[in-house]
Amino acid sequence: QVCAQLCRRPCYCPWVPPRCPRGSPLVLDGCGCCKICARRLGEPCDFLHVCDQSQGLVCDYSTASAGTGATCNFEDDEEGCEVNGRVYRDGEVFQPSCKIQCQCLDGGFNCIPLCQEDVRLPTPDCPYPRRVEIPGKCCPEWICEAQDQHLLRDARAVSPLLPYPCREWGTEWSACSATCGVGFATRVSNQNRYCRLETQRRLCMLRPCPAPPAAFPAVS
What we know:
The protein is mainly beta. Helix content is about 5%, strand content about 30%. A three-stranded antiparallel beta sheet has the order 7-8-9, with no helix packed on it. A two-stranded antiparallel ribbon has the order 1-2. It has a two-stranded antiparallel ribbon with strand order 3-4.
């Protein structure tokens, strides 16, 4: 009866099919008559306005009893994750920004950086490297500044009230080079007078080395 009320024969469809937003394909409506834009996840739906079945979506009427109307939802009970107001299916890979890539896993998500977090130390051909944002590019890049510009900025930044002349930056201390006894740990830091990246070392000792076994006298 519902089908007979909603589906009119013959079909009267617009001459030009609608332009669908990105990710929403053209499909036949619930009467199999006119082409419409498939409803996406979380969008309202009914018998006539169908959901995108290619994405595994069905019209979920479980919320209709609460007075909110039916919405498109996944057919099964797979867990998903929501990021910035958008829901992703379990196992789906997405990029919230051009700098990171994430994957939805068991209701949460794991992300990895797409930009290299390398550290460039001063070299003779580039004594004052600096990482800057380049217009039109996603990842920052290293540039080499002139010496006079660097010294001028250092002179402006130095203050007797601050322990360091600029914003502190450094890596974590590395593991000790020796498993027992005295060794070295290294890190890259700019905590120096000129705020330059440099490799720093310090002594470390995880535990004392065991004493060598005592020599037994020879038995004749």
